[in-house]
User: What shape does this take?
Amino acid sequence: MGHPTLILIIFGLLVTLTISAQARPEYALQRTTNCITCHALPMGAGPRNVFGKIFGSRSYKTAETSNSDLYYGDFRAEYFSPIEKPREAGKANGLALMVAAASVNVPIRIRDDGSSLRAVLTYDMGILSQGTREAVFLWTLPTEKNVFLPDQVLFGRFYAPFGLLSDEHRTYTKMQTRTAFRDFNMGGLMAWDFSDNMHLDLAVTDGNPQAGSLSTGDVESAVFANLRWIPSALPFLFGVSYTHHESQVNDPASTLITPVGQAGAGYLGIDFNRITSGRWNAVVTGETVIAKGFNGNTEMASFFFPSDGTASAYQNAVSSSQSRGYYSQFKWDITRNITFMYKFDYLQPDVRFPGDYFLRNGIGFRYQFESNEIVYLRYEKSTVTRPEIQNSSAFTAYDDIWLMLRIWI
Assistant: This one.
């Protein structure tokens, strides 16, 4: 990547703090626990189990549907409106069905030694989520086993374990590396819980974020590694991730897949509730990502480099460049049902030209009015320094209002 990955990760962590998901890595930090405590899959995100449903209820009376591990449902209706020129051609706006996902978590075999085999299947009817999501078989190994063996092994279609999990596909660092909310790979994963506060994911996949269909290339593959540590004596979360993609494509000019790409991430979380002995219930999470060879992918094109004008030519010029991204989120629970939220996104497509970048500041609130019913409202201010993109139909080229209703079962 041009520099040693470890140095870049350490540097990025420091920068993230100075500039300071909704898959809730901050919840794991606050409880010093692993994601599988609340989720059906060990890397977190996706369907919740009973504990996750009840924990998300925030002391409200839980719904009847929260008492079963067998099923989960997630509905999200989104309203999106650009503030300037909302009716301009190519400027998306209005109401959309972001997610309408139904999940089942079916036990196939459960034994007394703690081992089990389960099928976790999710079908998403949301227009913005592109159909089927998780579809995996999950093996949990016996409680008493060799320390070198993983705790869980899964095979199927799943969310790639890279960086901070976020269930917003519009997060810049997620699009930067093709690991967004709606990007799923087909392959296998092993997960280790070395303790309640240290977790490791290792995955080998086909590297195709539209996994579930055959690859568009001759050969396509990817590896992922993600290590997360939450020291029990400290109010911090630390994590590092790495991914490497390789493809041999029929059409070298194709932007459907990444011919060769690699990326490293370093991420951090701070729990102010523990620092202030409960007086300030706030959490900040952040990550920095260095990637090379990912700028040519179609997800970037649809958001940062639209085909109109010279924006597409700019994408071609930086398609194999090394990029740098930052993401951070601050959440402050003012009351049980009102949360203040600030979100920061930054992307530099080519580190050689620091004057060319995309930046977004989002500020808003989360209001939970029942155990499983939430409304999000956020105003987003965007900055783009490239003139050809400022005047294009790129999503990131204009300020907007974002509103979402979320209900789960």
